[in-house]
Amino acid sequence: MTDAITIKNLTYSYPEQGQLFDNFSLSIQEGEWLSIVGHNGSGKSTLAKLILGLLDFDEGEIRVFGQKLQLETLAAIRSQVGMVFQNPDNQFVGATVADDVAFGLENRQVPSEEMPAMIEAALKQVGMAAYADREPHTLSGGQKQRVALASILALQPKVIILDEATAMLDPEGKQAVLQTLKQLKERYQSKLTLIMITHDMEEAALADRVAVIDDGRLVENEAPRALFLKGQELAALGLALPFAMALQKDLAIDQPVYRTKQELATWLSKLKA
Amino acid sequence: MVIKIEGLDFAYGAGKQSVPVLKNINVTIQKGMITAIIGQTGSGKSTLVQQLNALLKPTKGTVQIGEHVVTNKTKEKELAPIRAEVGMVFQFPESQLFAPTVLEDVMYGPKNFGATDEEAKKAAKTALKRVGFDATLYEQSPFNLSGGQMRRVALAGVLAMNPQTMVFDEPAAGLDPQGQEELLNLLKSLRDEGKTVVLISHQMDQVLALADRVLVLKDGEIAADEPVDQLFSRPQSWFAEQHLDLPETIAFQKQLEEKGFVFDGLCKTVPDLAKAIKKQLDPTKIQTLGSTISENGEANHE
Ligand SMILES: Nc1ncnc2c1ncn2[C@@H]1O[C@H](COP(=O)(O)OP(=O)(O)OP(=O)(O)O)[C@@H](O)[C@H]1O
Ligand SMILES: Nc1ncnc2c1ncn2[C@@H]1O[C@H](COP(=O)(O)OP(=O)(O)OP(=O)(O)O)[C@@H](O)[C@H]1O
Ligand SMILES: [Mg+2]
Ligand SMILES: [Mg+2]
């Protein structure tokens, strides 16, 4: 197995604040779906920006598909990694929604005759095709997030980093995005690596692995089925349990076993008087 | 203070460029209650709440905010007192941060309404503490913060002004689970203090736990305006039509009802739901099956 991203002994501090990352290491395999969770200010967005080379780390190394992140490789690495930012307003560059999607494609030298179809497909994928001519700043919160996602999907990057990219979506929109991601994972298999930063534990539980960050330290790093059995430890980290696990904890009738909502409903029906 | 909206239409822009958004809205926001506004992306929630403190003026109809009546013709200078009475936390907190430091940012509101430096600082610190903002970051620029930290500063900014009515547009977005729990308690305590709270949220569990009354918007029109229990007693199919979900507890309750469980009333919290389920389980089955359940919820028959 090759790593999509390898972070080794990373050290970083913002000039204005104390040390954030001190000797931080984490690797993400090619084709893996990783969730990153952790309390506010724990360093998740900073880590994502470091991977994209938007911030310069002090020590250590970051590799993307084996290639060491440095000035000379920055462009090559950025063409492989697409990131949807926590605030979509920070991501918009185009005068219209369509321009915004086009911008990234132009940067990757997509032939201009291929662009309209690609733009339309990406906007359709997030249900925003009807808004192609709108100015991004006049969109509603959820519409902005959809467009921000479309701009990244259009580029078909090998690694997608989503920084709380569903936080403003309505329940249906959130399901649609997660469905889209699942389909992309199925289609591209090991060719697509997904990193999802989220506070939504249901969403985090969809991943192959969940990394928990606490003040710049990697404190948990395992499959959701194992992680969400640790009720006490998670609460101490300021985290919550997915709904089914929270309910099961309150039921307190068997050894902890990881169950999804569906699994829990099936099991309870077997125990019914 | 009651806010009364009558016959309101609203469109962005004018003439050929005009985008109609809100249609024939008639609602009353009661004082001392938590009113939640829910609805699909783009249904007009943020547009509607901006009428509540006259950031947007109606295209047609009236908005009565306490003693002030706002119409299309109301002059800008008449709106200033309304802003002091109705505070607003925007959907994207960055859009309301501006001062060089966190503390100054939160002090701005009170100072603007006549507080001394000393008073403003005290109000700011109290507010920041109330939203769980890390005291070591008071002198930081509000722009050098994480998403959830910015959200807390924006929340504190409105709390420090202490307006009678407070509007929160997706306040939980970006907050970690503990922060969301704290927010819930904060909004409840504001109601207990007699404040009028308006909450936009996509998180139905939050709405269920907090709201007294719920407005549902669909394509710019009011699709429902009723007490929270009445709303969530509607069938799942109705929520699907609005492109909305039921809260997790209620959705799970319905799922179990299909499997023969019986509940009287809505279970609003996870502990309540657990209690109601446990009553219906067979203790001997728990004994025999309880600890030998495999991961997929099937019993292991060895
Ligand atoms: N531009 C900046 N300058 C200085 N400090 C910053 C900057 N951005 C973030 N920080 C600080 O670095 C720490 C980590 O911030 P980061 O944005 O990575 O957190 P996060 O885990 O993404 O949090 P959230 O869940 O709130 O988005 C925080 O204490 C924050 O105040
Ligand atoms: N400045 C503007 N000019 C033109 N149209 C706008 C403007 N602002 C919002 N709209 C449109 O008005 C409609 C309602 O937007 P609004 O922001 O009120 O929705 P919302 O219910 O808050 O959605 P969300 O849940 O996504 O935040 C949307 O279709 C949006 O595109
Ligand atoms: Mg962040
Ligand atoms: Mg909105």
UniProtKB/TrEMBL annotation, chain A:
Residues 5-240 form the ABC transporter domain. The keyword Nucleotide-binding applies. Keywords: ATP-binding, Cell membrane, Membrane, Nucleotide-binding, Translocase, Transport. It is found in: Cell membrane. SMART domains: AAA. InterPro entries: AAA+_ATPase (IPR003593), ABC_transporter-like_ATP-bd (IPR003439), ABC_transporter-like_CS (IPR017871), ABC_transpr_CbiO/EcfA_su (IPR015856), ECF_ABC_transporter_ATP-bd (IPR050095), EcfA_1 (IPR030947), P-loop_NTPase (IPR027417). GO terms for molecular function: ATP binding. It comes from the Bacteria. It is a peripheral membrane protein. CDD domains: ABC_cobalt_CbiO_domain1. Coiled coil: none annotated. Belongs to the ABC transporter superfamily. This is Energy-coupling factor transporter ATP-binding protein EcfA2 (EcfA2).
